[in-house]
Task: structure prediction
Amino acid sequence: MLRLGERCTAVRGPLICPAADGPRLTLIEDGLITLDAAGHINSVGPAPADCAEPVTAPGAVWLPGFVDTHVHQPQTRIIGSGTGPLLAWLERSVFPEEARLADPEYAAEVTDEFIDALIAHGTTTSVVYGSSLPPATDALFAALAEAGLRADVGLTLMDQGCPPPVCVPDAVAQAASEALVERWHGHDGDRLRFVITPRFALSCSRAQMRAAGDLAEKHGLWVQTHIAENAAELKAVAQAFPEARDYLAVYADHGLAGPRTILAHCIWFDDAAWDRVADLGCTVSHCPDSNFFLGSGAMDLAAPTARGVRVGLGSDVGAGRSFSMRQAAASAWDAARVRGVAVSAEALLWHATAGGAAACGRPEVGRLAAGLAGDLVAVDVPHYTLERGPKAVYEALAFRRDAEPVRHTVVQGRVLR
Ligand code: GUN
Ligand code: ZN
Result:
């Protein structure tokens, strides 16, 4: 039995093990994971015949914790706000809500809901856009530190193209970013990291993007941003940056596109742009549910994967309608169908775990292997699926839209649910 807040030393049950080198999973029907006192995985394998450990969560299967490579904390309460497409939705729903985080009490309530939702859905690692307001982002770090989750968090940079309450001059944002790096980057054995977060080309001045690229370089930080999401956005970016060859070049020209950059959406890339993404070594956050909700389009998953580009899944809450990475996987299936791309539940669960870990540069999570962090999730599956074999289990995990929250969530060996 697992008790909340305790350290877990062993887990027995069916194990789903993502491969290190490609979108494949192995199902061990009766497996055993042991963990050390620091919460690292000691061993993974079939339970020995004389195993004394009882099954930990009967009816559930165990996987590495889910990795959400793109989620907006200040949008927790605007999930399902139907004011899209993108630019109208930002004006009508997003900016007014993000401004409300200036009230520390309101921000704390939203943060509690955000953290509860991540834990409930088994997201043990998330790459987070905070608001543009430094005190709210500092408080978000503190709450994640306390909650025990693993996360990369950014102060969302926006010094133009948005209303005054969320528009933060670059000098203020840069000073705040330096302070947040100093205070939180690498916290608790790298459980928390600071990620440079220019919102998108339309909300950042050239000077801000250049300074953000310099800061990332100075501290070796990851970068995250939005790109090629919506037709009107593309047109506005082309008008605002006539000197740039295309949208990707805007970021590349400002030192924001390299092997530590996560590009979200990437719907409207042509082959040449995808080739350059691969050459630059950028990674991709595929956010299909958000893309459907805002009517943005459907990313061609085969374009990055065929080029060896690392791809994770993103909920993109609150344009995405759920914190669940299982729901993200289900929408990724739909997007693949729309684009005529062959994919499987197995591959999508891999992208929701090992692929996401690779896409945000966290080799310590995403798989079940000795030496890795003990970030685990137990998910109930219908009792008949295990009898039907691995494919039925993967499909139940990925495609059941009526799925409950997960049974257990464990980060670094600590039981959070
Ligand atoms: N582009 C710029 N900001 C946002 C955002 O908050 N959500 C999405 N989906 N796209 C964006
Ligand atoms: Zn987003």
Residues 72, 86, 90, 94, 199-200, 226, 229, 290, 316, 319 surround guanine (ligand 1) (CB under 6 Å).
